[in-house]
What does this fold into?
Amino acid sequence: MCDCIFCKIANHEIPSTVVYEDDQVIAFDDLNPQAPVHTLVIPKKHYNDIADNVPAETMGAMAHAIQEVAKAKGLEDGFRVISNKGVNAGQTVMHFHMHVLGGKNLGENLI
It folds into this structure.
């Protein structure tokens, strides 16, 4: 996926504000934040979305990265994790990613 912006970020071809990184995933701040804290967690290997046969090991690495982001961003009081699948759900970059949102009371409503 040479034209995938998230693949380019994962390969450090495009600069980003990296919050966490290991051999499987990278987490970086969203350029268009929807909350005071809005960090994206992506696998370094390209998957279109959460339903694209993502291996359990990768999902585990994503969960660990989310925990590390929460610690780094001081989200002890809570945070929300969202993954959109497809255009109708609001996915704009077709590379599996999870949004970690927090830094304020997000309320009970999702939309």
In short: The radius of gyration is 13 Å.
